[in-house]
Write a structure and sequence with these properties.
Layout: H1 2-44, E1 52-58, E2 61-67, H2 70-75, H3 98-110, E3 115-121, H4 133-137, H5 139-144, E4 148-154, E5 160-167, H6 178-187, E6 190-195, H7 202-210
Parallel strand pairs: 5-6
Antiparallel strand pairs: 1-2, 3-4, 4-5
């Protein structure tokens, strides 16, 4: 009878090993994402990219390695091809500004099990009839057409959960976003806004977004 349990025990051990391996891989991926988000926070806040030199001695051999921080990697990203044509003067160098990119990376690190959309129009959260007439006839819809959200967090089925914006440290108030806040409240979508120089860490961000 003992021999009949051996295959079962082997199968259970194999399943347990696979589960532990997958969980460890997820934790490592999450840790890397949080490290990148933290490094971007330092980079945006003016941290200098200095290489870290480490010396390791193994027997008679001394190994010296230099590690460049993620801030330096951000500065050394490859440049895009030089634009040409009549629209070249209006071309944006990046789809997102530095604060928007940082918000996006923090959200990706904080919510790897959700979908993060970037630089969306408020009007895209509504089902508006095709054609410009419906928007032009409704002043409120017309106003929403020109309001943008820096990031929108969605469930895996793309149901919006929260909308987020970042604003410069020099901006004193939020009166200009009252209409955005009111509209999102009507839609049942959480609205969060942050100063560009004081974004929360990924763990704090997750708690804020999910409530």
């Amino acid at each position: 009878m003992l021999w009949s349990f051996i295959p079962v025990a082997i199968l259970v051990a194999a399943v347990a090993y696979i589960v532990l391996t997958v969980r460890r891989a997820r934790r490592e991926h999450q840790a890397r994402s949080e490290e990148r988000a933290a490094a971007m926070l330092l980079a945006l806040h003016g941290a200098q990219a200095q290489p870290r030199v480490e010396t390791t001695t193994v027997g008679p051999v001394t190994i010296t390695t230099a590690t460049v921080t993620a801030a330096a990697l951000v500065e050394n990203e490859a440049e895009a091809a030089t634009p040409a044509g009549p629209l070249a003067a209006l071309r944006r160098p990046r789809l997102l500004t530095d604060p928007q990119r940082l918000l996006y990376l923090v959200l990706r690190a904080a919510l790897p099990d959700h979908i993060v959309m970037a630089n969306m129009r408020m009007i895209d959260l509504l089902e508006v009839p095709a054609g410009p007439e419906a928007v032009e006839r409704d002043p409120r819809l017309s106003a929403l057409l020109h309001q943008r959200l820096d990031c929108v967090v969605c469930r895996n089925d793309l149901t919006p959960l929260a909308a987020l914006v970042v604003y410069p440290a020099s901006m004193p108030g939020a009166q200009q976003e009252q209409a955005t806040s009111d509209a999102l409240r009507e839609l049942g979508i959480r609205f969060l806004r942050f100063r560009a120089d004081s974004l929360p860490r990924p763990a704090e961000m997750r708690a804020l977004v999910l409530g």
